[in-house]
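Task 17 of the worksheet. Students: predict the tertiary structure of the chain below and write it out as structure tokens. Keep your answer in the requested format; marks are given for formatting as well as content.
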Amino acid sequence: MKKEIICFFCISLLLVFFIVSVSSAQNYANDEDLEKRIEFLEDRLKKFEDEMEARKALSPDEEEEIKKTEEALKAAQGDYVLLKKDKLELDYGFSYSYNSLDTITDNDSFTFIYDKTINDYNQDLLYTTKEVQHSRLHTVANTISVNYGVRDNINFGLSFPFIYKYDKTLDRELNDIGDITLSLRWQPIRVKGKLPNIILYGNFKTKTGRSPFVIDLDKELATGSGYYSMSGGMSFSKAVDPVAVFGGCTYIYGFEVDSLNQHLNSGRTLEKVDPGSSVGFNLGFAYALSYDVSFNIQFQQGYSFQSNYWINGEKISSTEGNTASLSVGTGFRITPKTTLSLNFGFGLTSNTNDYFISMSIPFVFSDVLADSLGNIF
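Model answer:
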């Protein structure tokens, strides 16, 4: 009986040992499998991180994408981007335009031409009698503009144009200052998402240039409009991958000029001028070809209402005018803060310059320099 009990006890121990051994082996196998799975997941995670780093290196982040869009809009030479607070920008602009005009007149006649060089409507007075007036006018403008960021959403600016004109037909030329312009731009809200960025702006143009209403018509040319004017409008821009769409609308009002005493070729005297008003809009898009080069194209349309002239007490009204132009341009980022803009355009109506070329290059100063120079504002 004792032998049977001892055998049973030994067999029981062997069974327990066998079960424990099998269980340990299974646990060991499970541990090895778990370690392999962890190593596999770590390897996959490392590869995923490497891919993300590569994608990040190849594609710009959101801030860089916004910067690229802003550079493309700056090259379009419009009111689409504001300076940050206390930033000061000096901008040099060069433009050239050519205008040819043939008009048959039988009395004192007036034409209303949009001059892209000075970015305004310009009245040319034709004082011939029953003959063809040939005009071949070359205009070069060098403009220095100063813009200052009063706040992140408010900018103030001044522009000083220096105009050179040459009338090839009559062999006349002139080099003088143009009309100085003050400007204010305001962004009411900074939007994100699907809504476009909107900037409201207002300009006041002086009459510092040589007026066409006081010069000797047989000997001189004008470099200004001859009257004060105010304009206001709105511009918008929106990034629609892969381009940035931009546009705007404007209204210009010219103030009346009286107490004139300009002797016309017909022997009569110009006494007063009411330049009237005009409206316009533009629409275009900009595309960043790379971080340093962008391309833009835009269409501009303008409509001028009647202008009134008083000659020897008699009121004479000009006809309403329609202007249109198409321009293409490109921007080259020559430094991280400086973009050179080039534009070429041509007129689509008889009241617009035949063609025009413009260039601008801004210089943005640091906050310290802006603080010291910004006191002039």
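Marker's comment: The domain at 62-376 is CATH 2.40.160.40 (Porin). The CA atoms of residues 153 and 193 lie 18 Å apart.
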